[in-house]
Amino acid sequence: MATAHPFEQILVRGIRQLWTGTEVLDHAAVLLAEGRVAWVGLEADAPSANAEHDAAGAIGMPGLVDPHTHATYAGSRAGDFERRLAGESYTAILEAGGGIHATVAATRAATEDQLVALTRARLQEMLAYGVTTVEIKSGYGLTTADEAKILRAARRAAGPVDVVTTFLGAHARPPGEADYVDRVVDEQLPLCAPLADAIDVYCDRGAFTLAEAERVLRAGQALGLAVRIHAEQVAYTGAAAMAASLGALSADHLEQIDDAGIRAMAAAGTVAVLLPGAMLYLRDPSPPVARLRAAGVPLAIGTDLNPGSSPVRDLWSCATLACVTMGLTVHEALAGITLHAAKAVGRPDRGWLGPGAKGDLALYDPPPGEPAELRVLVQYMGGHRAKAVFKDGRRVV
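The structure corresponding to this sequence follows.
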């Protein structure tokens, strides 16, 4: 029997089925103390505590981690959506001033306080689904001042939800700016690096070349930023292998990755972040999940929340889509929104439940008429609002 823990502790008991990040426990309990997990196990073996919370037969998860979003933006792209449904190509919309250019214009026009309010509202909605850590990229400013504004707003919006910021100045090339990569490296990075945890580049056909991406990533790495990359989405570029050679935390999208890129990611421990929302909206093919799995590449899942190619806010929906459209198993999906997602954002202290882990825990009731089993949360697409969320050991929902 484990011993009791003094002060600021709570025993969450009555969990019918619990995902620890690596295994499933039936009839479980979790002791939270001093903002961390102090004990996890079968309820029959639970220690005493000075406070208790009865989960009343709920399903338990580590606080979810969304490893890829563009959640700090202004403006709407609903018009673009209708135009694409009518058969207009993304390129034609972009050339007419829509697409990412429209979001950039709206985000530049917004004040920092307005961006904070918009981002905070999105984070609160994600928290209701049990998400307690969210990665947010810049990339809708494309000027030094506006990229810094986005990163500051993202950090200010954090509260019950932890925010990990990523500098993505190389998200799109402003029209007519042939020297834009120079500006990213020489002007944007020195100011934005202190506001970011990682650096990312959109390396793809019509975006930034492999050489440009490597230059930007190396410059960010030299300033202490972790490396991430948008890779192999529209066309094969070799970006995944290049980023892996730099020790990248993750390579994201990966619909067009080759075997050499998969081997490089496996050797480096680089996480594959799968983005089924973008795949669905853009009607892209699936990444080669079977080959990634066979190579031992960790699989994470993100929403890619953005107003254009993935206006998806529910990480549970993405977990289901990853199974249905990409071939993940239920347990791979659960790890993809917890343990592996945390690794992808460089936060190994969360996404799992065990002594020393961050005290983030989400509890869910199953859909009506279903048993309290983890698999039903993946089977039923989305809408799984948490009945309780604990952040840093304190109940916040």
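The mean pLDDT is 96.
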